[in-house]
Amino acid sequence: MDDSLLGRRLEVMLQGGQQFVTVNVKDVCSDLDCDGCCKANSGNKAWKLIDLEKGPASQLLGFDTSSPRFDINDVPYPGHGGKRQGANPGGTAGGCLAGWLPAAGTAFDSWPRPNTVECKDYAGCFWAGRFKAAGPDQRSPCPSLSLRLDGGNGSMACRYPPEVVKRWNMAATYNMDASLLGRKLEVMVQGGQRVVTVNVKDICSDLDCDGCCKANSGNKAWKLIDLEKGPASQLLGFDTSSPRFDINDVPYPGHGGKRQGANPGAMALCYRDVGVATLS
Length: 280
Fold this sequence. Notes:
The chain is an alpha+beta fold. It is built from six helices and ten strands; from the N terminus they run ββααβαββαβββαβαβ.
């Protein structure tokens, strides 16, 4: 929508940096491909947008592209820090320790109490004991470790019971940015010391919560790690034993501006990938 640089050869550097790369602008960024990201990243045309392909980007920023799990969206390139007002704050390393990456964090309950907010408003009872990348498949008899159970709203299905889910340390990620699906992660609250290990085997879908996944991730500005109540309680130290427990009542720490663009109620998490998710 502002293509005056198209067809031009540019020398590009980070503001305040010394290294530069030379690039050929022969492609466009279209909002149709990324739910409005070009408009957001340019501050609605307040700034010229230069979207570097991974080759020149890696030359400029010094990151390695050789990993078989490489995803350009995981690169912690420096955000503008207010120097491009109106533009998406971008992929800053977010204050995480060296070797850790920033994420926005939330929590969910895979077996919510009936009639709680999690059950009714977030489809928690419908999906109780069921996970995008772990099943169980809906067949008769139910697959190993699963049973035909009521999720809490009268809906019978093959489900993994609470005791199985508890030992798996499950987490979910945004289905529209699912590069973490199937990965085992170590996760901490930014600035904290406690670490939990989770298996990302489920997704957060906006269809279940009126756009909450998009909002909590800042429309994919940050990886979303949605912790199941088991690992969430280990990380944050809350008690899940009350008969009236609802994960939505847990006062987990908001990001306090550390994850700009994300819902203010989302946590500032840091994570590192430690392998393939395993369930046993």
